[in-house]
Amino acid sequence: MPPTSPLRVLIPPSPLPTSPLPTALRSEINSALLQTGSIQRIQTTLLHQLQASGWTENVRSFCLELLRSGECASWGEVMGRVLRDAGVGRIGGEEEEEGKEGVGNGGVNGDGANEEGAARKKAKLDVRIPEKVINEGIKVVREALEEVVEIVGDEE
């Protein structure tokens, strides 16, 4: 087996590929990504894609509308609304937390039956991350990981 560079992280094969990585291994990968400049490249690519798609302007306009309409009065409220409308936090049971905040009232989001829905319809702004941006993000992260990670194990 050829020697690995100091930035190469060796990962043993896992029987459960969806299980989370151990903290030490995750830290080692993050360090390697930082040393190679990959984190900056990922951030730059994502920011460019988000700006090119109009997403950053949509979020800015949506936040202003929330504040101007009085629907949100604090940074925390605005962030909560943007994250919820963007679909963030719906993984791993975080949806239940929405109900604790009084969001899950049984109504249809954006139906115009309340102030929130009316402002959303008025603004007609979509703050979900576009599929094209997600796909480009996956591509750049995969490329960065392939530079620093090597999965090792028994070859059959």
Provide key terms for this protein.
single chain; 156 residues; mainly alpha; two-stranded parallel ribbon; 7 helices; 57% helix; disordered N terminus
In short:
With 156 residues, the chain is mainly alpha-helical.
List the helices and strands and how they pair.
Elements: E1 9-11, H1 23-35, H2 38-53, H3 55-69, H4 75-86, H5 95-100, H6 115-123, H7 131-148, E2 149-151
Parallel strand pairs: 1-2
Explain this structure to me?
The chain is mainly alpha-helical. Helix content is 57%, strand content 4%. The protein has seven helices and two strands. A two-stranded parallel ribbon has the order 1-2. Helix 2 (38-53) packs antiparallel against helix 7 and helix 3 (55-69) crosses helix 6 (115-123). The two termini are 15 Å apart. The model is unreliable at 1-5 and 91-113 (pLDDT under 50).
